[in-house]
Amino acid sequence: MDADLLVSFLTSAVRVATPLLLAALGETLAERGGVINLGIEGVMLAGALAAAIGSTAGGPWAGTFASAATGALLSLGFGLIAVAAGANQIITGTAVTLGAVGATGAVYREVYGSGGVGLSLPTFRVVPIPGLDRIPLLGPALFEQSILSYLGYVAVPAIWFLLFRTRWGLALRAAGESVEAATAAGVRVKRVRIIALTLGGMFAGIAGASLVLAQVGTFAEKMTAGRGFMAVAIVVLGGWRPGRVAWAALFFGGAMALQFLFQSMLLNVPYQLFLMLPYLLTLLVLVGAVGRVRSPAELGRG
Amino acid sequence: MRVERFLPLVAAVLAGIAVLAVTLLATGHDPIIAMGAMWRGAFGSWDTILSAVLPRSIPLIIIGLGIGLAFRAGALNIGAEGQFYAGAIAATWAGLHLNGWPAPLAIAALLITSILAGVVWVAVPVLLRVRFGVLEVISTLLLNFVADALVSWMVQGPLQEAKRIYPQSDPIAVSARLPQVPGTRLHLGLLLAVVLALGLWLIYRRTLWGFQLRATGAGPLAARIAGRIDTNRMIATALLLSGAIAGLAGGTEVSGVSYALFQSLSPGYGFTGIAVALLARLDPLGTLATGLLFGALEAGAGGLQREAGVPAVLVYLIEAVIIIVVLLSDAFARRRSDGRF
């Protein structure tokens, strides 16, 4: 394999990994607080549509803010149902995703018509970072990306800091480990969880924006195609730590980018096998990860 | 059964309709006209009832029964969509090889193949859960996407029609097709769904196994210690049966409606089935009713799109509202009585 092909593979791996990374970081916040948000798939999808509409109206930045606001609001809604009212988290998440599929489908056809013609949106350009993009192989892959990828890079240490170096992060992790102990220590468990969900939802919304504005360039119904669920698996693989979550996201980005690589190598293998690959890898990885890493003790208990 | 148990369900459906009305208003449609179109799409004539509502309800009821079975044991099978597709692929493959078989045998062979495929598809999550402790929620969910890609490959590869133009299979053998009520699209699958519901109802009501299933779901620890129930085994069995039933739904859909495999054969039956089961409180006879309700909703959504130009996908938003209202009312009821789900 020649170097050009490798560079283009790595570049697309990072580009494809960006929405996964942003969504997984958001889910890390939720799960550190003990809440599993399967609605993240729907939040991403809603963020993607908000990004498309916002970008049509006022350019990519407007789209990004719209997606962040939509993601935060929708996850706040999830939090009110699953945390404040205490409904089953898994089923609430499934309902949020189902509702997002319905709402985005209807709004999309209402706004753009049902012609099915590819929609062309104002998108983020690739912004090379001078100097760093000269590094062989990794330079172009990591530093010739859109601004949203760079946002993902910055978010990794930021979320780490938030979780492990602030009082709020300590309170959140306490809520994720033992509701009783956290409550005894004066943590308002429901409140801290809902804030984490809302903040995480903002990231999931932006993840949808990065899919639309920095990767695909258009919106299509159900376009997230399970990336939100993949993000949930990435969090497990990353052991609920932002740094490892970033590696895990990159690994998945690589698995998804493989199909472009193999298509360009004209291998005589049905392309659908590569569509399956990331999901099968996720399963494999979960088998390896469970038991090796410890999940927050209160995860999913409600 | 007490009447007030069903008040939240009525409230949920009303809330769903209210959200629909608000959405219609917000998007500039006249809700009265649009809902009229929806009503006519479902209950406008005997033909819409027999050819749209009932055939649409059949897979929803069957899948809802399967999901309800798993949920009773506390196993959250979110992968009925994938198990349905596994069943549909296997049923199509079988149906293409059954030429010359007598009809009852051909139909039985096709349905059994689809059931086995559903079992195989859910066996992976079962194994992962029992052996490695991987949550079935995530594994069943992920396999939905694998099944989707598998269907796409099948209809463009091994099972593609002979001319190799369209992404679909050839029609299955005539003898492997479920009989229909003449002049309508209502097929024998409805009877199958009713029999299955009655059978499960009896099992839940009258057998020790049915009780153990419920006990496992209500509190695995208590079931294990106080009831001496092998909860792992209960959960595995429940998941396998639930996959079998979802696979069967794929079989009846191919054998009774589509006669062929193609992509998007299921408009999300596996997810709607969750709402169907939950709304019925996991009760098999209730599932018959909620399956009909959602079949009518989706048939009505078809009318909504044809007559009023409102996108039919909106129906998923309504379903989501219904699920959430039921969840919320359960949560508040629990808070009042301080029991656990």
Characteristic key phrases:
heterodimer, A: 302 residues, mainly alpha, two-stranded antiparallel ribbon, globular, B: 341 residues, 13 helices
In a few lines, what is going on in this structure?
Chain A has 302 residues and is mostly helical.
What order do the helices and strands come in, and which of them pair?
The complex is a heterodimer of chains A (302) and B (341).
Chain A: H1 3-32, H2 40-84, H3 89-112, E1 127-128, H4 138-143, E2 144-145, H5 147-165, H6 167-177, H7 179-184, H8 189-216, H9 227-237, H10 242-264, H11 271-289
Antiparallel strand pairs in A: 1-2
Helix pairs in contact in A: 1-5, 1-8, 1-9, 1-10, 2-3, 2-8, 2-9, 5-6, 6-8, 9-10, 9-11, 10-11
Chain B: H1 7-26, H2 31-43, H3 46-72, H4 80-96, H5 103-132, H6 136-156, H7 189-206, H8 208-218, H9 220-225, H10 231-258, H11 269-279, H12 284-308, H13 314-337
Would you kindly provide a written description of the structure presented here, covering whatever features stand out?
- The complex is a heterodimer of chains A (302) and B (341).
- Chain A has 302 residues and is mainly alpha-helical.
- Chain A has eleven helices and two strands; from the N terminus they run H-H-H-E-H-E-H-H-H-H-H-H-H.
- Chain A has helices spanning 3-32, 40-84, 89-112, 138-143, 147-165, 167-177, 179-184, 189-216, 227-237, 242-264, 271-289, and strands at residues 127-128, 144-145.
- In chain A, helix 1 runs antiparallel to helix 10 (242-264), helix 2 crosses helix 3 (89-112) and helix 6 crosses helix 8 (189-216).
- The longest helix of chain A is centred in the N-terminal third of the chain and has 45 residues, at 40-84.
- With 341 residues, chain B is mainly alpha-helical.
- Chain B contains 13 helices and no strands.
- The longest helix of chain B has 30 residues, at 103-132.
- The mean pLDDT of chain B is 91.
- Chains A and B meet through helix 3, helix 9 and helix 11 of A and helix 5, helix 6, helix 11 and helix 13 of B.
